[in-house]
Design brief:
Layout: H1 4-29, H2 37-53, E1 77-79, E2 88-90, H3 93-107, E3 113-119, E4 122-129, E5 132-138, E6 144-146, H4 149-152, E7 170-179, H5 181-198, H6 202-208, H7 213-221, H8 226-230, E8 234-242, H9 251-260, E9 270-272, H10 275-288, E10 296-303, H11 306-312, E11 322-326, E12 331-343, E13 348-360, E14 363-369, H12 373-379, E15 386-390, E16 398-402, E17 436-437, H13 445-456, H14 468-476, H15 491-494, E18 498-501, E19 508-511, H16 514-526, H17 532-538, H18 546-556, H19 559-564, H20 567-571, H21 578-587, H22 591-602, E20 626-630, H23 637-646, E21 650-651, E22 661-664, H24 670-678, E23 682-684, H25 686-693
Parallel strand pairs: 2-11, 20-21, 20-22, 22-23
Antiparallel strand pairs: 1-6, 3-9, 3-10, 4-5, 4-7, 7-8, 10-11, 12-13, 12-15, 13-14, 13-17, 15-16, 18-19
Helix pairs in contact: 1-2, 17-18
Bound molecules: 2-(butylsulfanyl)adenosine.
Length: 694
């Protein structure tokens, strides 16, 4: 028999689980906070503690298990009990009228529809047994899909345990998993920063960013590490119940029931007795969809009555009682003038479609990204093609199709270039890499200019007044060929210097005024004081971003030690892998680079860490976390700032929704506290902070 303590623990677990589940439900489904984040975390900690003492009492559906940590090597394939069908699509009112007439012909006119939003995500089927989430399976090919239960369990709005209700012992509920637009942007922005820090250039970054919220959601569900999935803030809406005997007479009632059992059901569904009601629903959401926090790509119309649904039945692929209506994405049709190729700082080649200018969603579009060779092959672009451009989730317009009826028989396919458009070097594409590269980094103009631009950039040597156009001008005038040449420039060379700016065909003349010339000279002089770690980053060694540069500087202390380092030695450093080691080693074995470093050294740049520099970053414990520090503490504000940064965190000055922690001291302003509370930002004390970096 269980001892008294154990009985108490079981009671406590049940009590806390129920409370936490209720809070999660209100927070994620009803968008209301019953308690503060602080109280929530405290309760969660309490539950974790009891569960730690009595591990055999831990239920697989406990709120502590919601954030996973499970690794799924391979997803098991599961056959769907009810096939996961797709929907017939319609694009205009006439198509819908035809659908309506077909239905009325078969079942008569005593008919009602439910209109719902068509969520742009990934279909999922959830099985519940005795109110507990048993399994989550993707659509797959409609007949069988992947078991992604562990990953789905990390989605906070999906209940592990239903609220009391009259649900069948076993049933399936289907819906859509998606990511909110804001979260998508935030995570993409975060990824961009990480890639920038790792030293990737713009072309590579664009290649690696998530393309749209839908791809993001489906990619996330297939991740092997459910802890990683939990960080992706996925959400879900459920929209159809399958059970051996119907849970209600109508679809509308079943949605209401599902809501009452704790499922996230969108509030935007409505009964439509007539087709006119359907049309006004469509018009309403075509206008309002831009204000929704998630993407929808149309609406779905379902016959409300289950008996009528049964009578109508299915075709091989779709139900006859439901149909989707897709919103039009704004598109424009225009002519492809030519494809050009941009060469980035690292030699990465990006193809760009140059178009006959056309108006699209309020702006004139002249170019569209073609991303890489694979995308060009997929589109099968030909000379003078008539192309269809769209502005999707991405900022840069893209070509979504080609009007083949406009293609002349004599038009030839456009093949990806074989040689660099700037220097003529044969391009290379490594296996597994989507991009082609020009490896002639010593003599290829855009690569040289790009490297100088990187060197002078804000995060590197931070030379003010030296933007892209001036660098281009100085290069074109033969005044600079590499970053060391900057330090040979004198005022007289710059004062009144004339050069061209702007693109081919739209070139303008510019001349440097006395003040700008002096500012540039001053900026270059000031950069000699920039720290060794930033100089290392500025050198533009591939894969050496800010973090790696900081680590190398901390480890080797000066440039001589670093230049001598062997590959094996480099890869011993924490978080510096073989690939980075290889790049660093090769960089310092190339005579031109050693020469460049020697010249920079002779000009008086910082080639070693300074005495008052700390030994560099201590840990990554605060990596990706931002802090606002407010109030009076035992430690000075400067010390706190240093500790945050030394442990990989970011010290920021104002509170925004993106902030992770407010470090609150004595006598802190009430306004700040109020704002942090409103935005749901975690508030921590100095002791909490010490604990975090211990
Ligand atoms: S009902 C048998 N309702 O659209 C009925 N589907 O193009 C099955 N979808 O595979 C679907 N929002 O992934 C339904 N409110 C909604 C929906 C919806 C999005 C997706 C679903 C389906 C696809 C069909």
């Amino acid at each position: 028999m269980a001892d008294l303590f154990e009985q108490e623990a079981a009671k406590k677990i049940a009590f806390l689980s129920q409370k936490l589940n209720r809070c999660n439900y209100h927070y994620y489904v009803l968008s209301e906070s019953l308690i503060s984040d602080f109280e929530f975390d405290h309760m969660m900690k309490e539950l974790e503690n009891v569960e730690k003492q009595y591990p055999h009492l831990v239920d697989a559906n406990s709120p502590t298990q919601k954030v996973g940590g499970f690794i799924t090597k391979e997803f098991q394939t599961v056959k769907h009990k009810y096939p996961m069908l797709s929907l017939g699509n319609t694009y205009n009112e006439n198509d819908l009228r035809e659908f309506d007439q077909r239905i009325r012909k078969q079942i008569g006119s005593n008919l009602e529809y439910v209109a719902e939003l068509k969520f742009d995500g990934l279909a999922i089927s959830l099985t519940y047994i005795n109110g507990k989430l048993d399994r989550a399976v993707t659509r797959g090919d409609g007949t069988q899909g992947d078991d992604v239960t562990q990953n789905v369990k990390t989605i906070k709005s999906i209940p592990h345990q239903l609220k009391p209700g009259t649900y069948p012992n076993e049933f399936e509920i289907r819906g859509e998993i998606f990511i909110h637009k804001k979260t998508f942007e935030r995570l993409n922005e975060k990824l961009r920063k990480e890639l920038e820090i790792k030293g990737f250039d713009e072309d590579e970054i664009r290649e690696k960013l998530y393309k749209n919220p839908r791809n993001f959601a489906s990619g996330s569900l297939k991740l092997q590490d459910s802890l990683e999935v939990s960080k992706r803030s996925l959400d879900a809406f459920l929209y159809f119940i399958y059970s051996p005997s119907p849970v209600a007479e109508t679809h509308f009632e079943s949605l209401k029931l599902a809501q009452s059992w704790g499922f996230p059901v969108s509030d935007h569904y409505t009964l439509c007795p007539t087709l006119d009601d359907v049309f006004s629903y469509i018009n309403q959401y075509d206008k309002e969809r831009k204000d929704l926090s998630y993407e929808i790509d149309g609406i779905v119309l379902k016959v409300n009555n289950y008996r009528q649904q049964e009578e109508l039945g299915f075709t091989a692929k779709t139900p006859r009682w439901a149909i989707s209506y897709k919103f039009k994405t704004e598109q424009a049709v225009t002519l492809l003038n030519y494809v050009s190729y941009q060469v980035g700082r690292t030699g990465a080649i990006t193809p760009v479609a140059n178009l006959q200018p056309v108006l699209l969603a309020g702006t004139t579009v002249k170019r569209a990204s073609l991303y890489n060779a694979d995308e060009m092959e997929r589109l099968d672009l030909h000379n003078n093609d008539t192309v269809i451009v769209e502005k999707g989730g991405e900022i840069i317009p893209k070509i979504v199709g080609i009007d083949l009826s406009k293609r002349s028989n004599s038009s030839l396919p456009i093949n990806f270039i074989t040689h660099c458009p700037e220097c003529g070097t044969l391009l290379e594409r490594k296996e597994g890499d989507a991009l082609h590269y020009c490896l002639n980094d010593k003599n290829c103009k855009p690569q040289i200019k790009g490297k100088i631009e990187h060197f002078t950039g804000r995060k590197a040597m931070n030379i003010e007044n030296l933007g892209t156009e001036t660098i281009n001008g100085l290069y074109d005038k033969g005044l600079i060929k590499n970053s060391a040449d900057l330090y040979d420039l004198i005022f007289e060379q710059l004062n009144n210097l004339e050069f061209e700016i702007g693109e081919e065909g739209e070139k303008k003349k510019r001349s440097l005024k006395e003040k700008s010339a002096q500012n540039i000279i001053d900026g270059i002089e000031a950069s000699k004081k920039i720290t060794f770690e930033r100089l290392l980053f500025a050198l533009g060694i591939r894969l050496v971003g800010e973090t790696v540069a900081r680590k190398l500087a901390a480890h080797y202390k000066n440039i001589e030690n670093l230049m001598r380092a062997e590959k094996e030695d480099l890869s011993q450093i924490h978080e510096i892998g073989d690939k980075i080691a290889e790049q660093v080693y090769t960089f310092f074995r190339t005579p031109e680079n050693c020469n460049l470093v020697e010249r920079l050294k002779n000009k008086g740049l910082q080639m070693q860490i300074s005495d008052d520099d700390d030994e560099g970053q201590k840990s990554n414990k605060l990596s990706g976390k931002s802090f606002v520090v407010s109030g009076v503490f035992n430690k000075s504000r400067d010390t706190l700032k240093k500790l945050i940064e030394l442990n990989g965190g970011r010290f920021v000055s104002s509170i925004s929704g993106k902030l992770n922690f407010l470090l609150a001291g004595d006598k802190m302003g009430t306004e700040k506290l109020k704002k942090a509370n409103e935005l749901g930002i975690k508030i921590i004390t100095e002791e909490d902070f010490d604990e975090m970096i211990k």
